[in-house]
Amino acid sequence: MSLRSKITISFILLIVLTLSPLLFTLQTKVKSLKMDEIEHGTIQLIDSKANEIGSWLNQRISEIRIIHENRSTKNLDFTELKPYLTQLNKVLQSQYGNPYETFAIGGTDGQGWISDEITIDVSERDYFKKVMSTDVEYAISNPIVSKSDNTQAFIICHPIINENNEKIGFINGSVNLGKFTKIVQDIDIYDGFTWIMNKNQDIYSIDAEELNEKYISSKELNTISDHFQEAKSGIIAIRNLSNKDATVFYSSIPYTEDWILCTMIENRMIYEQTNHIINYVIIIGIILCILAILLAILVSNSIVKPLRLLEENMIEVSKGNFHSYYAFENNDEVSVLGQVFNQMLNEMEHLFKQVVKAESQKKDAEFRALQSQINPHFLYNTLDTLQWKALEYDAFEVADMVNSLSRFFRISLSSGKEFISISDEVEHVRNYLEIQKIRYKDKINYSIQEDSLMDQYLVPKLILQPLVENSIYHGLKPKKQGGNIDVKVNSTDGYLFIEVVDNGVGMDKKDLKHLRNNLTKSIESEHYGLYNINERLRVTFGEKYKLEIESKVDVGTRVMLKIPIIDEEEECLE
């Protein structure tokens, strides 16, 4: 059997043996794996949509909280409350979808005022009794019929608590189910149908009768409620009212006790994309198999022909013709053999060119290294010249600022060192503060306290200046009167303690908690300097460092770093 025949037969067998198990795997395994992936992605999307709806609902609750904190609300002063609520009803009616009775307010007897034309009595309503008899912050009602326009709505009821911590009334926010239905209808996943209900199967985004007549039976709704008792998020296989297999993806909605976001998708829609992919792969696989057989024949010819030519060249060389070069046109393995054959005659010239090239690269590298040393010196010399010129014209403030900037850059560059002495780090931040003090016209005052005999201690470069910069831009700059920054550096029990304290605007508990959480999870935020320092210390010291942040609104912020002591001898050993 010729070489050409062996190559052709082997190539065809290899293609067939490779594609056969691949096609079988695509048909039997990929579909199952793809379905798991789709289900996982869909339930994550449903969870995300549930959180969005919960956030929207929380915004409405927050608006009611704002009404509660109004002074006239806590005093039930209807003289001030009536125009206030009338204005709110106009401004916020689009958010609630209720143009006639967005907000109502009343006393502990359940008698409520919406407008001079509309009043309500909620004394017998379950949600009113709940907020009055328990410690819940608010309660959400089942769907009810609006008194003004006979549309369906649900009520967010919030008790009014006066300065003596006594319940003296209630605030109602009425959300039209039409508004809520529009929010839910915007959710489009595989052409599925989405609705919201509670565990008692009260429907909040569509008429209950319409849901039972067009989409899903009461029995299946009961199945969803049962599953919800066991898991707040999940997947349920059902049959819809068209007697087709379907899947319900459900998730609990935050800021509610028992609301459930449900999306029902027919299985054929879920499988449609996966089936298309598998069919495409099978068709492409068959086409590739046919093409591979044709290519095998062509490739075998392309291999045999150049081998014969190479054989003829070798015979010529064996006869003493050392200029019998192989003429190659392709880039396959046979051509590589031909190139190696030709290179045997040109190796000396090739090696010489390599040596010349290496020497040229070495000179270029030396020149770049020298240039990188010259540039910083040029910067320092230029800044020194600017300082002399400023002194020559008696611009002492400019001279001081240039001098501080020059020293700032010298320590920032530090000849490429990653660790510098703590005294240099303190000097660096002192230069920075001097520049900022001139810039903000003495609105910034500072003090620096450091223990003596700490010159031998080393710290990662530029970990103090970003803390001070953070205090200026997030603490003092928003403060009209300016303020103070106190920097303290000391050592105890093998650790350095660096503390930066300002009396700026500070942060509330929510923002402080958010900042701490971002640093713990390595999430970037507007406090990029703190994030940068935290990440560098995490890489350098692992779990041996500590970064603490304390802050109060209108009091100020304190940032403390605790890092292991590194002295110059230890760095040399490392």
Describe the structure in brief.
With 574 residues, the protein is an alpha+beta fold. It is 56% helix and 20% strand. A hairpin with a 5-residue loop joins strand 2 (111-113) and strand 3 (119-121).
Radius of gyration equals 39 Å
Question: Taking all residues together, what is the mean pLDDT?
Answer: 79
Number of strands: 19
Treating each run of at least 4 consecutive H or I residues as one helix, how many helices? 15
Distance between the termini: 67 Å
Query: Main beta sheet: strand number and arrangement?
Result: 7 strands, antiparallel
Share of helix, binned: 55-70%
Give start-end ranges of low-pLDDT stretches. 361-375
Structural class given helices, strands, pairing? alpha+beta
Strand content: 15-25%
Global morphology: flat
